[in-house]
Amino acid sequence: MQDFYEIDFHNVDSNTGGEAITIRYCKNDKIFIHVVDGGYQNTGDMLIENINKYYDNPSYIDHVVLTHNDNDHAGGLRKILEEYSIGTLWMLRPWLYAEEMINDFSKYKSVENLKSRLKEIYSNIAALEEIAIERKIKIGEPFQGAQIGAFTVLSPNKEQYLHLILDSEKTPAVKENFSSIESFAKSFKEGIKYKLSEWGLEIFPEEGTSCENEMSIIQYANLCDKKIILTGDAGREALNIAAEYLNYISVSLPGIDLFHVPHHGSRHNLTSKLLDKLLGRKFTYKPEKGEELFKALISASEKDDDHPRKSVIRALIHRGAKVCVTKGKGFCSGINNPSRLNWSTLKGMEYPEDQEEY
Which of 10, 216, 269, 282 could form a disulfide with 20 if both were Cys (CB 3.0 to 4.6 A apart)? Predict the structure, then answer.
């Protein structure tokens, strides 16, 4: 059987977006199904319908990955776990490391009490754990280097992950007065102005994203000689760690063929320097249609007027990307994959002539 892959970015219908990705691929004559995040709880039925329709009505899914705890990533996976037989559920459970972190928590002296509190805080992960235990689904620990089928986990490593839990605004740890970058960004939302910008000019804010987003599991695979990175909501720290690990495992950069743009195209997850490292230097000219070097895929709700950010779209196109965004419609990207009736070729976004001023 010829190797193939098909990656579906599903439409998550909400005011603020969401993430739901399903993948089917054939490698060495074996077919795998791999689900990454599931949007909100009401996204689950749509995912099941699509999997059954386009993946030959399977009863078994090899791998299910929750990148991080956020509602718009975790909710729909509950129905996936209940509908199918699952090989492995991959997610990080902070309470497993309570004993290692207990001394850093000023309010907790009992490991069991800390575990209980962490389950309350990371309730979406706890809910999936409960279903998995009840259904006897194996739960894998997706730290850097873990192999999830054809995919390798690039980030986080364990040291980074524990540090992020302690620094998170959600956990009553060392930094009681921590203020998340997401909150900062939202507080200035109404004041954003746009400015006309010449080709190549990129404006990214100094502030990064939240600890919760930095916890996102980043995955890499080479399928059909195409380099693929899936990022969740990963921020700058996580993506830099991912780039370093790719170098460690002898994957040359730049040269990614399919780049999942983190956090619905937020400006706080990327920088020009980071994009240079992952995707290459800026073109000196605006590429024509058909001259693109790679695909940049973004999950963003049709109801969300703020994502993806124009500065992000510009920066991706500067490096030769064909930028594709869900915006009310799911899409599939693949190589050698079975054809689908009434599915059209992916259209790239136009280059914005203006961008956010700060």
Answer: 10
Looking at residue 106, the DSSP 8-state letter turns out to be T
The two tokens of residue 96 are 């497993």
Task: Give 118's Cβ-side CA count (13 Å radius).
Answer: 23
Q: Are 85 and 61 in contact (CB under 8 A)?
A: yes
| Structure tokens given for 301 | 């709700």
CA 21, CA 23: separation in Å to the nearest integer? 7
What does the pLDDT read at residue 63? 98
Q: Determine the Cα–Cα distance for residues 183 and 46; give it in Å rounded to an integer.
A: 31
Cis peptide before 58 (omega within 30 of 0): no
Output the CA–CA distances (angstroms, integers) from residue 299 to 27, 261, 281, in the order listed. 26, 8, 24
> Tokens representing 93?
């459970």
Rounded distance between C-alpha atoms, residue 275 and residue 301, angstroms: 24
Q: Which two tokens stand for residue 24?
A: 């089917």
User: What is the pTM (predicted TM-score) of this model?
Assistant: 0.93
Residue ranges of the chain whose pLDDT lies below 50: 175-190
Q: Any bridge partners for residue 38, and if so which?
A: 20
Question: pLDDT for 307-327, tens place per residue?
Answer: 999 999 999 999 999 999 998
Choose among 216, 210, 213: nearest CA to 182: 210
CB of 317 closer than 8 Å to CB of 347 = no
- Fold of the 4-170+188-338+352-356 domain: Metallo-beta-lactamase; Chain A (3.60.15)
3-state secondary structure 136-191: CCEEECCCCCCEECCEEEEECCHHHHHHHHHHCCCCCCCCCCCCCHHHHHHHCHHH
Instruction: Give bridge partners of residue 354 from the DSSP assignment.
Output: 196
* Closest among 155, 176, 165 to 101, alpha carbons compared: 165
**Distance separating alpha carbons of residues 234 and 217, to the nearest angstrom:** 7
Beta-bridge mates of residue 188: none
Domain extent listing, the chain: 4-170+188-338+352-356
Residue 84 one-letter amino acid: Y
Distance CA 340, CA 50 (A): 12
